[in-house]
Design a protein that fits this description.
This protein is α/β, with parallel strands linked by helices. Helix content is about 35%, strand content about 25%. The strands form 3 sheets. Strands 7, 8, 9, 10, 11, 12, 14, 15, 16 and 18 form a 10-stranded mixed β-sheet that branches. The protein is elongated and about 80 Å long. Bound molecules: L-homoserine. L-homoserine (HSE) binds next to α6.
Length: about 425
Amino acid sequence: MAKDVWRVGVAGLGTVGTGLLKFLAERPGFAPAGGKVEIGGVSARSRSRPREIDISPYPWFDDPVALAASPDIDLFVELIGGSDGPAKAAVEAALALGKPVVTANKALIAEHGTELARLAEAKGAPLLFEAAVMGGTPAVKMLREAMVGDDVVGVAGILNGTCNYILTEMEAAGRTFADVLGEAQRLGYAEADPTMDVGGFDAAHKITILAALAFGCAPNYAAAEIEGVDQVDLLDIKLAGDLGYRIRLTASAVKTADGVSVSVHPALAPKSHPLAQTTGALNALFIEGRRIGRIFIQGPGAGAGPTAAAVAADIADVMTGAVRPVFQAPAGTLEPFVAVDPSRAVGKAYLRLLVKDQPGVIAAVSETLAETGVSIDSFLQKPVEDAGGVPIVLTTHATPESVLLDAVERIAALPAVIERPRMLRIARV
Ligand code: HSE
């Protein structure tokens, strides 16, 4: 597919799209394989909205599907976002015509990856999405290409910069979730509708994609267990800190003989752990291979420069003429996703209770834990002003999740327990 000039169509002119146009205008001959990029057309929701760059030199398309199908486009870049709607229609239109597609759309790949891979492979068109996960930090190529000589058994990390920024700021400044989120929105760091980020869905899309690449299975977003940071209480951040931990929104995918589990949870990491040391909007990822062992990468997961750089790297890959399977193996040979029941996972946990300050409460709690089969690792009772009771916080030894959940139910039913105990996992990374 080597060409002297590649006419690229860019749909979606937000932060990443304008960052990409700026880069391509400055460095049209950036690709190592040679050849030049020209902008064959652009499309966005609004043509007139103020932008950092002047888009008037580029052919305008109201409809991204028309742009994708235009005979003046050799390669389609989709930066619209969203799992369905115009993004999916435009990507399908380009692939159906055998045109290479580069996208940053994690929702699209996580939710429709297998069908799009089938279409792309049937048409011999590359479908690349490095920018969909960890922005400028190359996680996708690492798993799809560099790790194929190994058997990856687990990937885990911090895949949402907005959540990591919020958690870092809550801890550093002692501010509530709502306060930090409100400020991040005012400053334009967080989306106007932050649900995808703070609800854990964005991280779940990303870990779903990484699981498919790591394990050679079909992506299965519906199987992901998802909990966001919107329920993380400042009190837990403080108490976890007293015990030597930080709370991080941890996305993980694990492969065992029984199948695959994919989850996103707020979890505690010891303060010296690389995940706890990942602060602000940074992303981080551990990859565990049977032969290579552990790899750790950390870097920017969002922003115009880093994300546009990842899109540009995919454009450069297309320009080499190589066509690889979209995931680790051809779509028709991907292993089916066999979901493991998450309650079978075994790990340590943090439990925070709010109890009445009266004799016998601690005895009742520890008796309940003993009856359920949960062994206590550390225990802290810490009077906190205005907490509405006395917080008791404890960590457990490794315990099956089903047992921990049973213990939470039984403790919640004790008369001296004021509110439902808060359980957080201790990161199993
Ligand atoms: N909204 C994402 C984040 C960046 O906060 O990490 C784009 O995937």
